[in-house]
């Protein structure tokens, strides 16, 4: 499993700014590599190109790994998403396929902080862990639902199934290892359902352009 819980109050990294800088650098590099990977993916996995969850997952993993404070995680969530977009746009343009990063930059600024805090809260317990799990699992499951229903006729189902399984696996792992108590469990499960539903509604209203 990608994510695993830790103690409620982990020791802060010795050099948090260096950890944060590493997240920013990797975000820019991974964004650029996405441009190359997009043309190399097998057709059965190419649906990732139509997904917003790919960069969301990368952002969450990077921020979860460095284990910084919640407010730094919020800042890094926005910055990471923006740099992934900028890296992709720069490399794509250099390769002759112009891509405007404006839309996803706006999305990153608005949504990125929530993704960052959610990833950081996976290290916590009870309500914070439940909220973080609900947000990230809900995004993954919501993206799977949207992909399989709204664009299922024109894209391969493989990626949508995989990202949905990732969301379910995250939920099961957190419920079995970290989240305890009836109310926190309800927050995690019902919260994920609410996030997934909101994700689907938002993407359908926007015509899947994000």
UniProtKB/TrEMBL annotation:
Q: Which residues cross the membrane?
A: 17-37, 43-63, 70-91, 97-123, 130-152, 158-176, 183-202
Please name the Pfam families in this protein's record: DUF6518 (PF20128)
Q: Does the keyword section mention Transmembrane helix? A: yes
For this UniProt record, the keywords arranged alphabetically read as follows: Membrane, Transmembrane, Transmembrane helix
| Domain of life per record | Bacteria
Query: Looking at the keywords, is Membrane present?
Result: yes
Q: What is this protein called?
A: Uncharacterized protein
């Amino acid at each position: 499993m990608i994510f695993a819980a830790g103690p409620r109050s982990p020791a802060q990294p010795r050099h948090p700014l260096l950890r944060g800088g590493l997240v920013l650098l990797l975000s820019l590099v991974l964004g650029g590599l996405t441009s190359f990977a997009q043309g190399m993916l097998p057709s059965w996995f190419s649906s990732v190109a139509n997904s917003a969850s790919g960069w969301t997952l990368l952002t969450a993993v990077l921020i979860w790994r460095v284990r910084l404070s919640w407010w730094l995680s919020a800042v890094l969530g926005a910055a990471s998403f923006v740099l992934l977009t900028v890296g992709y746009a720069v490399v794509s343009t250099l390769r002759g396929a112009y891509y405007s990063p404006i839309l996803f930059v706006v999305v990153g600024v608005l949504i990125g902080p929530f993704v960052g805090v959610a990833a950081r809260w996976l290290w916590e317990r009870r309500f914070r862990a439940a909220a973080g799990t609900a947000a990230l699992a809900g995004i993954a499951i919501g993206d799977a639902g949207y992909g399989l229903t709204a664009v299922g006729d024109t894209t391969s189902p493989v990626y949508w199934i995989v990202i949905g399984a990732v969301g379910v696996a995250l939920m099961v792992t957190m419920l079995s290892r970290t989240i305890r108590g009836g109310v926190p469990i309800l927050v995690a499960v019902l919260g994920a359902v609410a996030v997934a539903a909101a994700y689907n509604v938002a993407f359908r209203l926007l015509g899947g352009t994000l």
